[in-house]
Amino acid sequence: MEYVYAALILNESGEEINEENLTSVLESAGVDVEQSRVKALVAALEDVDIEEAVEEATAVPAAGGAAGGSSGAAPADAGGEEEAEEEEAEEEEEAADEGDDDEEDGDAGEGLGELFG
Question: Is the full-model pTM beyond 0.70?
Answer without folding.
Answer: no
